[in-house]
Amino acid sequence: MEKGWLGALALASIAVLTACGSGAEGSGPANEGTRENSGEQQGNGEQTLSYLGQDYMLPENVERIVVTGAMEAMEDALVLDVEPIGAMTIGGAFPDMFAPITGQTEPIGEKTEPDVEKILALDPDVILASTKFPPEVIEELEKIAPTVQISHIATDWEDNLRFLAELTGKQEVAEESIAAYYEELEEAKGVIGDSLKDQTVLAVRVRNNDLYIYPETVFVNPILYEDLGIEAPEVTQAAEAQQLISTEQLAEINPDYLFIQDAAQENSENEGELLEQLQDDPILQNVPALAEGRTFVNVVDPLSEGGPSWSRIEFLNEAVDLLVD
To answer: So what family is this one in (predicted)?
Structure first.
């Protein structure tokens, strides 16, 4: 499909960011220039922002943002060009996809293991944390700074993006990004038409060298099954959380198209051989996706979440070309 819209969006975003930053000194992490937001100003250096039905009392001027555990927030930061002062690592490093926004960012622990002392030392204005964290972790973070748990549910992607945009004064960039996605979606639906009406499309993630499926509201599934209107396999419809599937189950699903997300950081050194292993498995010999060359590994960065703004835009753009070839 045409990818020019991404370039146009990037140029528009640069123009917006330049306008927002005019008159500001420097370009430090997290925030630039003068912000506006629709939250309620308290007049005492605080503001109330609403997110997913909950109100948060936050500093009026947020300049020091720490992200821990919430890959969704990092993807949104990438779309909005927001540089956090601190962020989690995966396998001891920031994922390459976040290179544009982590040049000055301090590591504050792994994705599932925030380093509270490092976060405290950064003196953040706001902490964006994962909804997957247990209550005791959130309690520790809230002792340091106001903490907002960013939803990991893919269908909350617009709320997630708009919240960070409001927090950092980049609402216009967010709205342009959302509008661009839906414009591309309409084009994609027109290209696909009814061609996948009788086809089974499945997306899986590899973790610890095992295959996992996800509910319809998680991973890239909302893009495939809700946005593009492809019928979800029964096993996906029935899934309530991340669910391990065996090769026998994969053969039973019998997908015509198979998307695999396989990150080296989440698997053994043999991860690069996965596709060959699946193709050579006698149980899977007759699965159309494998037998007919319609299995696609890492069409977007394997560490992307699939549902948030950045990976949603990237996945749609790449997947549609593969689904219509």
So the answer is: Belongs to the bacterial solute-binding protein 8 family.
